[in-house]
Amino acid sequence: MLKNFFHKKKRYATIPSERSKKDIPEGLIVKCNKCHKITFAKELEKNYHVCPHCDHHLTVSAPDRVRMVLDDGNFFEYDTDLISTDPLNFEGYINKLEKDMEKTNLNEAVVTGEGTIGGYPVVIGVMDSRFRMGSMGSVVGEKITRAIEKALVKQYPFILFSASGGARMQEGILSLMQMAKTSAALAKLHEKGILFISVLTNPTTGGVSASFASLGDINIAEPNALIGFAGRRIIEQTIRQKLPDDFQTSEFLLKHGQLDMIVHRKDMRKTLIKLIDIHQVKGGM
Ligand SMILES: [Zn+2]
């Protein structure tokens, strides 16, 4: 009986997305960081945060991304209570976390949860580069791992949007450990034949690119995103060679077999629906 009671609860709640809208006061203009031309924020929002002048894909917050991708922006968020601690007593870390929490209204650099897309239930994770540059500490790794485990139990496809500067230095080895933890969880998903679509957005670098972001059954990137492990200068100094201009871009990676496709942001939702649709196993997944 108790079980029935809980089942009657509304399955999906709307994420508190209004807050991020308030970040853009009426009439404010946004300058493209590529072509430097200006656009009205409202117009930019309608255009999926893609510059109408040069097609540059600007940074998208996790709540905006969820709204753009899922049905009607309906979404049930997981683990909103997980907050990072300061295991290494790293100077200023807690202060920085608190500032980012206030700035973004998020508890950490990734939002995870479940919702539907084109009517298909999915588990989704979206990283937010506004929070500590989307770096992966213990909480980011834990939230992603728990989301993967939910997808495993529910047998829902898992979609993850990455945007990250890599492992979080303020948590040292504990951050690096998240690479192994998330990868091990994904291996279980793979064994069960559950679809994982990884979407790499600008930028996806360091430990995130070197773990779950590259482990999709299908790896998609947004156009012209910076994707790589170490920075260009470090690699050039190490190998003592000049790297090509388009090195570490989505287009370069696609050409060299590291990506399956590059998808424009305006086509992302329909592409994801199509991919999930083709991977449905009739009579249950
Ligand atoms: Zn532009």
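Residues 61 and 264 are 17 Å apart (CA to CA).
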